[in-house]
Request: fold
Amino acid sequence: MENRVAIFIDGSNLYHALRGNFKRQDINFADFTSKLCGSRSLFRTYYYNVLQDPMQWPEGYREQQEFLDILRKTPYLEVRLGSTKVAQGVAVEKGIDIMLATDLLYFAWNDFYDVAMLVSGDSDFAYALQAVKNMGKHVEVAYFERGISKDLLSVADDRYLLNRSFFKGLWVGRRRIKHRKVSGED
Reply:
């Protein structure tokens, strides 16, 4: 049995976890997915996120477009974008979780993969992962120590802790350290 792996990345969850844990998000996605797969065969990687509103966040939109251009050049990686809706003055993601869960199930039903790898800590995906397991597929979760759902971990057949040692060698650029002027400096 070949063990074809499909990787499903909750982009917002990954972005915030990288910023919160490492103060950076410049990972090489080809190397990242290769490390997650190990010696197994990669079917495809799917990256889910919301598209920034260029009218409300022009700088964020520009940065996101640069990032998405890099992602789109990554072999066997597809970008899936949802939208935001402003509710009571706050931008809220719309459709991302259901998009990811639908693809997770659809590809399992159509036997496109043997192993589903979810990169997220969001408990909303636990039931979809359980449904995939019930179809005879293996499910794995790659997660950060902070913000992981116990429900998600309990469904997973295997777990990968995304810590500092996991990301060693996966960063694209040099770490940018902001210099803060300290009182008394010239």
